[in-house]
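Below is how a single chain appears once it has passed through the pipeline. First comes the sequence as given, then the structure the pipeline wrote out for it. We keep one example in the README because the format questions we get most often are answered faster by looking than by reading.
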Amino acid sequence: MRIVATLARIGHHARMSIEPAGQPGTPAGQKPSRWLWLISDPGIALAVVSVAVLGIAGVVWMWAITGATSGVERAKLQLDALKFGFGVFAAAGASAALLLAIRRQRHTETAHRLAEDNYQLARANHQLAQDSSVLARRTQSHNEADAGARRVTELYAEAVEQLGSDKTVIRLGGMYALERLAQDNPAQRATIVNVLCAYLRMSFEPPETTLTPDTVGYEKKLARSEQAAQELQVRRAAQQILTDHTRIPPTQAEDSVGTVTAVADGAESPAIFWADVDLDVAGAVLVGWNAERCQFRSADFSRCVFHDAASFQEASLHGAASFDRAQFRDIAQFTQTVFDAAATFVGTDFGRSARFHGTRFKKIADFRRAYFHDSAHFRNAKFGADALFGRPLRMIRAHNGLGGGTQPQWGATFRYRSTFADTTFIGVAAFGGTEFHGETTIGEAVFTDPGKLFLLNALAPGKRFGDVWPTGWYLPDGESLVRQKPAAEATQPRSAPEGA
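Resulting structure:
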C-alpha cells in the first residue's frame, strides 16, 4: 500500500509539473491532454516502476503457488515464474523506451512548429518593416510635394504682386520670376501664360516719338511718353517670354505638313520649349511682335494693334487662329506660316505690305472685309479649303463655326498690288465684290475645281495696267469684272446663274 501511495504522489507531481498552463504547439485556448504527463521524467519513471511492481507482484504470487506442488511440477512452475519476471522487466524497459520515443517525437514536432511560427513571425516583421519604410517614404514624398506646392504658390503670389508695382524694375523682376517658375514647373505653365497674356491685354499707349519742345502740353506729354517707354520694356519682356518659349528649337525638324515630329540626329529637345500653348491676347497692343518659327495650339489676336513689323514667319498654329479686326501698322509677315485649323482675318487692316508667300491654309481662310493698304502677296500659298476674299454669286453657308445659317460674304479691298501667282485653291475661291485698285495677278493660280471660282461683281476701278485675270474673266466697262461665256454656252439655256 505504501508503494501505491508513493506512485500516486509521483503522478500527481508529474501532472502539476508538465505544462501546467498549456503545452508547446498546443493551439491557444485548447486544453492540454491529461495523459501528457506520462512522457515526462516522473511519468516515465512511474510507468516503469508500475510495470516492475506489477511484474514483481506477479512473480511473487506465482512463486507462492509453487509451494503447493512438488517435484518436477514445482520446478517447472518456478521456471515459468522466473520467465514471467524477466518478461515483465523487459516490458518495463520497452515501455520506457516507447515513452521516451514519443516524447522525442513530440519535442521534434513542437520544435518544428515553433520554428515555423518563428519563421512566419520573422516574415511578418519583415513585411511590417517594408510597409513602414514605404509609408515613411510616401509620407516624406507627400511632405516634400506639399512643401513644394506651398513654395510654388508663394512664389507665384509674390511674382504676380510684383506686376502691380509702379516701379519698372520690380515689374520686370516679376516677369522673369514667372518665367523661371513656369520653366521649373510645367504644370503651372498654362496659368503663367494666361497671366502674361492678361498683362499684355491691359490698356497701353506706345510712347510718342515726334514730341518737340514746341508741342502743346510738351511737359505732360513727355512725362507720359517716358512712363510709356518704361512700360514698353516690361511688355517687350512679356512678349519675348511668350515667343522664346514657343519657338520651335533648331534641333527639331518639321515634316512636310509643318508639324514637329522628330529631333535631328537624336538630340533631345531643349527644356526651354513649351508645347501646347494657348495664346489669348485679344485687343492687346503689341510692339515689334516676332513669332518666327513659333508653335501655338490656338491663338487669338483679334482686335490686336501691331506696332512696328509683326512676324509669324514659319510659325505653326495647330488650332483656331483669329486675327479679326486686327491692325497691322507695319509689315505683316506670314511667309510659310502653317494654319492647321480655321484662320480668320475678317475686317483686318494691313497698313503696309502683307506677305503670305508659301503660307498653308489647311482649313477655311476668311479675309472678308480685310483692307490691304499696300501690296498683298499670296504667291505659292495653298488654300486647302474655302478661301473667302469676297462673296460668290449666291449666298453660301458659313463654315467651321464662323456663324450659323447663311450669310453674305463681303469683299476685301486691295488698294495696291496684289498677287496670287502659283497659288493653289482646292476649295471655294470667293472674290465676289472684292475691290482691286492696283495691279492684280490671279490668272497664274491653280484652281482644282474651276467651278468654285467666284469673281462676279469684283471691282477694279480706275486705270489698270498689268492685270492677269483667270481665263474668261475681263473688265468690259473698266470697273466690274465679268465672265465671258464660251461660244458653245452662249447658245444654250442655263439652269443656274453664271458663276454660281
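The longest helix spans residues 72-163.

See the next section for the split statistics.
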